[in-house]
Amino acid sequence: MEVIAKFTQDGLARAKQAHRLFVTLTYAQSLDGSIAAVRADNPSLTVRLVQGQIHARGITSVMVEGGASILTSCLMVQAIDSQFLSHGIVTIAPLFVGGLKGVAALLPAYPRLHPVQVASLGKDVVMFGPFAPPQ
């Protein structure tokens, strides 16, 4: 575990020196492909814990990418602390996978829309199109 901590600290120092973001991935895999272990008794990090660690290191800009679970976690913190997030960017793939439980039994034939069209409707963005044949 000490080796992982040292590797993480070194990576953070290099990223900070190069004015680059330091990214923690769900799979504990770094961008260069090396793998770090995740403790079995605590496999997930809380948004608040990560925020505190990022702030303590002087990092002021972070991109969070994930699915329904991480998005919900961030939005829950934002509902309590309106200063938590400054911007939001939502990218929607024209692919229907359900919620957290999803429709895993359909893998890899998730229903997809193609071709996709996008339109603004007041404050909403609407994505629409015909269902494409399974891939």
From TrEMBL:
Gene3D superfamilies: Dihydrofolate Reductase, subunit A (3.40.430.10). Keywords: NADP, Oxidoreductase. InterPro entries: DHFR-like_dom_sf, RibDG_C, Riboflavin_Biosynth_HTPR. Residues 54-126 form the Bacterial bifunctional deaminase-reductase C-terminal domain. GO terms for biological process: riboflavin biosynthetic process. GO terms for molecular function: 5-amino-6-(5-phosphoribosylamino)uracil reductase activity. Pathway: Cofactor biosynthesis; riboflavin biosynthesis. This is Bacterial bifunctional deaminase-reductase C-terminal domain-containing protein. Pfam families: RibD_C. SUPFAM superfamilies: Dihydrofolate reductase-like.
